[in-house]
Amino acid sequence: MNSAPESPIAAGNAAHAGGLEPIHVAFKHNELIMAAAGPMVYMWAGLVMVCILVLETIAMSIRVPTPIAVGLAVGIGLIAIAFAFIMIRRSLRRRWARSRDGLVSDASYRLRLVGDGEQTARLVEDLPDAPFEPVVFFSWCGISYTAPGIDRSGKKADGSAAPKNKLVLPDMTNTRRWVTAIIGILSGFGFLVFQRLVLHSKESFGPLPFFAGFAIAGAISAWITPTYIRIAPGVLDVLRFGYLEKGTPRFERWDLRRGEVLADARGGLVRVWDDAREGSRGLMLKSGQLSCRSETLIKSIFRAARSRHETPPLPEDALVG
Question: Count of domains in the chain?
Answer without folding.
Answer: 1
